[in-house]
Records
---
Amino acid sequence: MADVSLQPKHFLSDKVEHFTESVIREMTRQAMLYGAVNLAQGFPDFPAPAEIKHAAQEAIAHDVNQYAITWGAKNLRNAIARQMKLWQGISVDPETQVTVCCGSTETMISTLLAVCNRGDEVVIFEPFYENYGPDSILSGAKPVFVKLRPPAAADGEWSFDEHELRAAFHAHTKAIILNTPNNPTGKVFTRAELELIRDLCVEFNVLAVTDEIYEHIIYDGTEHISMASLPGMEDRTVTINGLSKTYSVTGWRVGWAVAPPHVTNAIRKVHDFLTVGAPAPLQEAGAAALSLPPSYYHSLATAYCARRDRLLPALTEAGFHCFKPRGAYYVMTDISAFGFADDVAFTKYLVKEIGVAAVPGSSFYNDPRDGARQVRFAFCKRADTLDAAARKLMTLRPK
Ligand code: GLN
């Protein structure tokens, strides 16, 4: 009799059959392997603000070295509530509506685990940040994808079809995941678009789970609007954010959810048993970060705009068609001009032969064929890093 314990899948959950490891993070490993300039994974290669590094050092020196309250240090929760009021006019009770987790990544999966039952459907715009697919699967939900279409005109916006979106909502829909400003497209959802989504959430009794991690990285006079600030959404929105992108500390792993009290209770329970808590000294430093003056956010957006405007012309000159981002720090490009079989073949060539790592577009789509002509570059990098990438990209030859 065959020994079932020796069969390859015997010890594994069925769930892990349905997704692969992150391609974004794999591309970082490839960049290291080939010594390539890493424009793949979205993390800054420049320092975090001195004040907040100092606050972290001080917290450790003052022995903030044991567990914080599982749902977040009081100082940080208070600062999060203050910021929600200041930027979005949303009143938040830090005692009953805020949960601090290990990055917005844990926050998202804790939220989905807290709200989804097997058979529930979760609406996701695609292209989407690759975590949302596995997050849905791990929480037992079925993702239902709605297309964001690239702009036809050079200066246009990514858009969705209202009827397609409506068709994605039905009785089993539990939640919609919305990421604005958006990774990977750079789309910043307008008030009119958010209102349309709001109306569907209300009609179908659906929760909005919004990833707003790029909130302060916006360009060209666009405005970031939190879904929770729309009338009718205050009791049906989970707003996810974190320190990583706004304060250039992706390795600190501090993120949070702001949600109605009964949803917060459920998220806190999952979070408690998943990770107990986010790093205590870094939560104190987070409170200091959230107390930086408004000028900090203005400089952040201005500096990112300059990085965008440095990389995009270089990509265009090298033969890429760029879809200009209005927010976040990525640019989706069309690679048709290079005549490769697909995005994966192209990014392999790019990292190995040209020396630049990027993310194949297919990682952001449910059906890989939909992203076969697209590649994403991250521009959260120093000017000299972007210039080094640009020099290498000039050696590419469009067909
Ligand atoms: N958000 C970043 C990206 O899309 C990476 C985040 C991560 O790897 N955890 O590249």
---
Amino acid sequence: MNVRHFIIPIVLSVFLGTIAVFAAPDLIKPGEPWLDDRGKTIQAHGGGVIQQGNTYYWFGEDRSRSNDASKRYVSCYASQDLVHWQFRRQVLVLTNVENLQPDWALERPKAFYSAKTGKYVLYFHLDGAKAGENFGYNLARVGVATCDTVDGQYTYQTSFRPLGHESRDIGQFIDDDGTAYLIFEDRPFGFRIAKLADDCQSIEKEICLVPQHLEGGALVHYDGLYYFVGSQLTGWGPNPNQYATAKSLAGPWSEFKDLAPPETKTYGSQSTMLLKVTGTKTTTVIFMADIWRPGAQWNSRYLWMPLEIGAGQLYLPPPAPWSLDLKTGVTQIQNKAP
Ligand code: GAL
């Protein structure tokens, strides 16, 4: 047989395969394992994303099985397109600094950049029970760690209750003018929105107490309105996440409404952040959420979907693979019913 009978089909299929790879849209696939540049599942649960120049940095709880069980870890990933993420490092490896019982928690890390100091400041929910206590979320504090670079090794600084209040789930919000806010769940009262000091290392003042018992708090400013999203207090179990709107962060806030058909329980997910992408054609707001797997947390998944947003309404479409053109802001959901 002539060697061309082998070579031509091989060359052709490699060529066509290459075209297929380049032509395939880069999709975000809610609920599926999301691999980093090393081929490992992204460990950034309960996370947050900040943008520095053209790069997005995703921080979150690293729950890898290979971690030392006595420590808690925060990982950081970098991306230029929000689809492909490069693992940078475990930016925080924390020991049991508050001498809590072994099941202590570091959750929902969020990174801020202070233009005043040029430092990065990581907030997280630090919790656990002291010896003799039997409830695991008694401490109810934020922990703070700092670093000179966005993805360097963060140094633990302190922990405190913001403005003296209980603080469990936290969220972050950077307004369009760059002002940084912390959202925190204050169990006896509801949730609070507080402004960070210029160095981001302490809380300057409270902006609002919303007497609604919601956690996983997230905010976005869109077309003249603030939209707040949060989840009910049902632990790792999903529930119908809700939203409200206000013209000012200080309120008054509208009544709370469901984000998705309540029977779907937010498609099995829990809010962690709202990420706004302003493109040349449109502005997209991404609902970032976790699909928790309490018995196998390293295998918890992510649900990121573009929201339908405007005129005080918010709607989370059913999860499906989707693409985002960062330049234009335009998204396309696969197989979406017309
Ligand atoms: C959820 C919270 C999670 C984690 C979990 C523990 O309500 O959002 O971050 O704390 O409870 O049960």
---
Amino acid sequence: MTVDRPLRLGVLGSGKGSNFAAIADAAALPGYPAQPVLVMADIPDAGILKLAESRGIPARYLPPGRFRTKLDEEAEAAYVAALQAAQVDLVVLAGFMRILKGEFLRLFAGRVVNIHPSLLPCFPGLAAWKQALDYGVKVTGCTVHYVDQGVDTGPIIAQRAVPVLDGDTAESLHARIQEAERALYPAAVAGIARGEIAVKGRATTGFRP
Ligand code: GAR
């Protein structure tokens, strides 16, 4: 994906928005090749919306519809319409806790990325830092990947390792992973915006964080 202007990012989140804030802070620096132009959340009081508003970035709560883990058809259409109206080039999932499916991914094919708090393909799904702690691994981390029809299965763009320390709690480990996420996600989005990343089947090339 290459455009001769800053890439327009549509950011979707459900939580406090620390990944969004890291990208927005990077985008405020000269030369960053992408700009968040719209932030949407499926939870009315999600912190990400307040962080966006405080930065002057349009922010909206959009109801997710009747399902618990995915958007229903009507909600999906509303999300798509808002992203298209904002002329979004790349959809950035930043703690968006709903699975995106069929029509959404067809319309934004190859243009949806996610950050996941483990070294995929280990520990997909919910509370990945807790899964890692419970399993007893010595190293975990975070992964930026393209989104496909599966859950946390798309081509991997970038990863950063985080050691699991003796005495770690779920909270302390998650905090350390989130610190790594805040460095990795803005760098990976910049790599995409600069057209550095090529996808061949499952493999991506060109990105060196
Ligand atoms: C992040 O740790 C992200 O990796 C995780 O949600 C958190 C959101 O934090 N995402 C997932 O678990 C997706 N499967 P944030 O709202 O502070 O960016």
